[in-house]
Amino acid sequence: MTLASFSAASRVTAISRLTALRVPPTVAFAFAVIAIVIAWSLAPGLFTNHSPVVGVTAEKLLSPSAAHWFGTDHLGRDLYTRVVYGTASSVTSALIAVVIAAVAGGLIGLLAGFLGGWVDIVLARLVDVLLAIPNFLLAVIVVTAIGFDTTNAAIATGVSAVAVFARVMRSEVIKTRQAIFVEAAFLMGGSRWHILLRHVLPNASRSVLPLAVLQFGLSILVIASLAFLGYGDPPPASDWGLLISIGKDYLKWPWLVYAPAFVTIATVLSVNRISRWLRKTD
Amino acid sequence: MTNAYLSYAAKRLAQAFVVVLLAYVFTFMVVSILPGDPITNVLRDPQNGFTEDEIRQIIAAQGLDQPIPVQLWTSLSHFVAGDFGRSMRSNRPVATLIAEVLPSTLILASAAFAIALLLAVTIGYGTQFLPKRFGQGLLRGFPSLFLSVPNFVIGLVLIHLFGFQLGLFRVIAPDSFWATFFAAVALGVPVSARIAEVLIANLDKESEQEYASVARGRGLTRMRLFARHLLKPSSLPVITVTALAIGELLGGSLITETVFGRTGIGSLVQRSVSTQDLPVLQAVVSLAAVVFVLVNLIADLVYPLLDPRVKLIGGPRARPTTADDGAVATSVAATS
């Protein structure tokens, strides 16, 4: 085999991989939305000249205009600025929640599926219990126990989602464990740990990724709900849920609710779209 | 009813009982072991004006000076006997507090549930019969959209549009018909999305079946085709997801009741959270677990009666969506 034919072959696979990965327009749009949200959370100062905390009292409750895209709130603060500055906290807390849920749930599912026997039985009951308590109620209880602030709300949201990850991980691990290549690895003398890390984990985690993305969107909603009920950081923080919560007292100026709600919905919709796409391309 | 079914039922019942007990223990652990000391925080709150002596008395009266396993045992045995203890705030029995607000939440939740089902079936119907390019794509996007909207936003939008703009109801009269109706809509929409997702997937599958083509060929009306040949076989997995969605109704009522200013279990929880009234919280969480487990138990028990293909061996619930012909052949379902 010559070098030329080898490189030609590899180019063909590269092209076919690109076509296989062809991104539908809605997904591209979803990625664009997420990119904006990430940019907002990394460098909010680049996107606005106003202050998120200090308002101009003379300009309170203005409707949306070129100067104030989302209008201004009851203290004359630019709402768009508040949304942009609230992004970091809203996004990071959802990320914390997903990491907690995926790591704890993944570990539970991995142990239950891989070890089987009584470990599986005990862990399955634990998962049943977590599933039996309504998610949101569970998050509320946990955040009550550990105290009201946004990080704790994120932890509580993560705890309430552990069961879902444990379930999926367990069934994936069991599926992979029965695969022929795993059996082959056993026969070739691979240790349990080697097989767990080299074969089972990478295969099982493939279906955990779309779930994690989906859960990221859900976590944004749950954390917003907790913030809405006042279990997150108090104002002047400007988490999306908190902004909507403040807006609800000024329903005569509906953009105070609609603008942050729109940003939340657009973000979660985009995340869900990406998750669906990941599941399909897998 | 055969022996196989009865032993299956007994096994599931025992499992359900264990899960409820464990849920109680779990909540107890969460509130008593996690860092932070809500109880003395409340008692030592200067606003309450308890002296150190009184605090000690209260703690002794509630049995909070006992070691945690002892506390757990006492409260668990009371719970099994149906005694939820007393509220730390008002010193009234928790059971009374819950009984006072339960009817309002039941009305809201059952209305929301009815709306969710109706909405899901309507969406399902539309996805089968609307023109492909125009209405169908839109309808298929609905579940995903519904699941992306925080349910307090749905509530606020409804209040803004129908309460403020159209004047259909007033927020200060939360128990009026229209206020209850819109609260139920707000609560039901996310639940309907979960049901609709599963329903649509199954309707699509059923409509490709040969018997569906035959029914179409016989010239059945759309309504009849939908109800008898598509909806009926699709309803089994829908039962499973519906039972799971019940929990969401309970959790969601917390927010919906706050948004609409209703008094109910949700607002009781919210009040108890802000005053850190742990006995009330513990009772509500345990009750929610009881409801959830019961509903799922019923679904599990109804399942094999509706679909004889469902396997009765082992604990896990069979799902007709994934059950292939092999599973049907090997099923040991009630050999009636």
TrEMBL record, chain A:
Protein name per its UniProtKB record: ABC transporter permease
Protein's UniProt keywords contain Transmembrane: yes
Gene3D superfamilies hit by this protein: MetI-like
UniProt similarity note: Belongs to the binding-protein-dependent transport system permease family.
Keywords: Cell membrane, Membrane, Peptide transport, Protein transport, Transmembrane, Transmembrane helix, Transport
Topology in membrane: Multi-pass membrane protein
Species annotation: Bradyrhizobium rifense
PANTHER family assigned to the protein according to its UniProt record, in alphabetical order: D,D-DIPEPTIDE TRANSPORT SYSTEM PERMEASE PROTEIN DDPC-RELATED, OLIGOPEPTIDE TRANSPORT SYSTEM PERMEASE PROTEIN APPC
Domain ABC transmembrane type-1: 87-275
TrEMBL record, chain B:
Entry keywords, A to Z: Cell membrane, Membrane, Transmembrane, Transmembrane helix, Transport
Domain ABC transmembrane type-1: 102-303
PANTHER family: DIPEPTIDE TRANSPORT SYSTEM PERMEASE PROTEIN DPPB-RELATED
Family membership: Belongs to the binding-protein-dependent transport system permease family.
Name of the featured protein: ABC transporter permease
Compartments (UniProt record): Cell membrane
Chief localisation class: membrane
